[in-house]
Amino acid sequence: MTIKSLLPGALGFGTAPLGNMFRAIPDEEAAATVEAAWGQGIRYFDTAPFYGAGLSEIRLGDVLGRQPRDEYVLSTKVGRVVLDEIEDPAARDLGEKGGLFEHGRPNKMINDYTADATLRSIEDSLKRLGTDRLDIVWVHDVAQDFYGDEWLAAYETARTGAFRVLQKLREEGVIKAWGLGVNRVEPLELTLDLDEPKPDAFLLAGRYTLLDHDRALQRLLPAASAQDVDIVVGGPYSSGILAGGTHFEYQKAPAAIVDKVARIKALAERHGVGIKAAALQFSLAHPATVAAIPGATKPSRIAEDVAALGETIPAEFWTALRDQKLIADSAPVPSV
């Protein structure tokens, strides 16, 4: 099964912010945001144990539990097991993502991509989500941004552990699809070169956006297309900087990025284009990408995302971006 045939549309909801990413979000606000997504017709929801040490899964499950299970597609991730033991969330070693979920639950998380841990992670996620099944499972963060020079060792554990377990679960019909969910292209390129196991899709966060797409364009996206491995785009707003925020790559945006965003915004205003619309539609214009899953913590943001997806963008805007070297010449753009 291709992910494209499984997903109910091009717009899903990424629930990392519901794990109290960057700030503590009241339960009512989190619930209202999921309800708004449902009300706007969104039927694909992505979460992970990592998001607030299970907080995102719990909050998502509380709302989706009131809806018929056959009416939505649900994905979560493996690679981290949440324990009952308590730790200081602000003191966790999260590689380049330090402090990301310091407002989440204080439960200790361990990194483990082995077969046994994969099965345990899925079982725990089902309990937190209050559901009897998952549609898609992603192997989470086996990449340089979390493991530095040790990333290949983590990847190898996942290849012989999590990958094979998920392939077996898919073959048995327990899940419908599996793949990797990462913020770097290298693990995905490596996986496409394997004879087995073969994933159905990848969730690639932050690497196919208006601000950062050159590397993915060169090899990953053509190779994925050739092998019918679909790409779900995470972080289409580059951690918020393309949607009016101040974060890029989960940290305070550097001056060069702030300047680039200002140049894109100036062109957008000149052509009467919303920056969110430009970011979202750019990420979805490549033939390999099948959906984008922006995150949100306010109900109003969901309506903005839906409107952005439907906005008409004049061809002259994309030409202007190319002329100013703000997007790659080879990057596909939406047709008018």
Explain what the structure shows.
- This protein is an alpha/beta fold and 336 residues long.
- The protein contains 13 helices and 12 strands.
- The strands form 3 sheets. Strands 1-2-3-6-7-8-9-12 form an 8-stranded parallel sheet.
- Helix 8 links the parallel strand 7 and strand 8.
Tally of helical runs = 13
Strand order, sheet with most strands: 1-2-3-6-7-8-9-12
The largest pleated sheet is described as: 8 strands, parallel
Order of helices and strands: HEHEHEEEHEHHHEHEHEEEHHEHH
Termini gap: 30 Å
Overall geometry comes to globular
Strand content: 15-25%
Average predicted local confidence, pLDDT? 95
Q: How large is the radius of gyration? A: 19 Å
Q: What assembly state would you assign to the polypeptide chains in this entry?
A: single chain
Strand-pairing-aware structural class: alpha/beta
Summary?
With 336 residues, the chain is of the alpha/beta class.
Tags for this model:
globular; 16% strand; eight-stranded parallel beta sheet; alpha/beta; 336 residues
Secondary structure layout:
Blueprint: H1 3-6, E1 13-14, H2 27-39, E2 44-46, H3 55-64, E3 73-78, E4 80-86, E5 107-111, H4 115-129, E6 136-140, H5 144-147, H6 151-160, H7 162-171, E7 177-182, H8 186-192, E8 201-205, H9 214-226, E9 230-234, E10 247-248, E11 251-252, H10 255-270, H11 275-284, E12 289-293, H12 299-310, H13 315-323
Parallel strand pairs: 1-2, 2-3, 3-6, 6-7, 7-8, 8-9, 9-12
Antiparallel strand pairs: 4-5, 10-11
